[in-house]
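Supplementary Note 3. Input sequence used for the single-chain structure prediction.
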Amino acid sequence: MQLFNLALGLLLLMTLGGGIWRALRGPSAADRMLSVQVFGTAAVAVLLLLAQAFGQAALRDVALAFALLAAVTAVAFVRRAWAEEVDCDPE
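The predicted structure, written as discrete structure tokens, is reproduced below.
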């Protein structure tokens, strides 16, 4: 089972290549922000898989902290993008 968890973690890390491409070439700021959210989600998933594979409870705590930070950054981005959209509206 440990090998399976490590293989899933490696697969998640490999899928981040698409996220890096989107972060660099995204046509809009929203695309870039979503790719960064994918990084956060993948980091949480990899940490949870490693915690299960190696039996380290501390990694679960780090994954929880990353998940909370990802939620806060998403809210901050939406608030900033919403404010810019309202400022640009000619009405």
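The chain is about 90% helix and 0% strand. The helical segments are 2-25, 29-54, 57-88.
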